[in-house]
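[Automated response] Your request has been received and processed.

Submitted sequence:
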Amino acid sequence: MRRLTKGKRLACNSKYAFVATEDFTDRYENIAIAGLNYTFFAITKMPPFYLNCHVYSTLLIRNDLDYRWRGRYNEDTDLCLQVLSGGWCTVLMNAFLIDKMATMQMKGGNTDVLYKGDGRLVMARSLERKWPGVVTTERRFDRPQHVVKNSWKGFDTELIRRKDIDWNNLKPNNYGMKLKQVTDSVKSEELQQWLKNQ
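Generated structure:
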């Protein structure tokens, strides 16, 4: 698990990431799914979260809605499309990141069962059939890949703040996190300065 701050991906305890994500999600009335972005996608400074896009692998799901997992392929993408087309929001956290191996880099699981042979094409086409006009199949990364129209930008529902929260008096919360040196040396001058100023 990583904490993305000032463009740095710093190791952190997962409990902080999950609690912070839950607290953020609970402040709004209309978040159906929230989750953590992948560390390998965080290569530059990014906003704390992306609104209304895919949330993969690590999901916090509002279970009182009628949307459900369905099908064998791309269930996470399908679920996100269901809630977004229903007028709900999704939030992909960049403030905290999850470490995950890139797709098709390891034997077993989906690589041997779902992706084998023309499995990538079958998988992409199945989502395209569920979402005609929204999802297409293209060739990316030297393999068939589903593509959501306009990179999810068609979903523009805004977050609705809960009215029972005093938004003017919310205070920053570090959840007890402190920067700690865990290696013998720190190469980054910026991190050296952060450690010195604690």
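Summary generated for your ticket: The two ends are 22 Å apart (CA to CA). The mean pLDDT is 87.
If you did not submit this request, please reply to this message.
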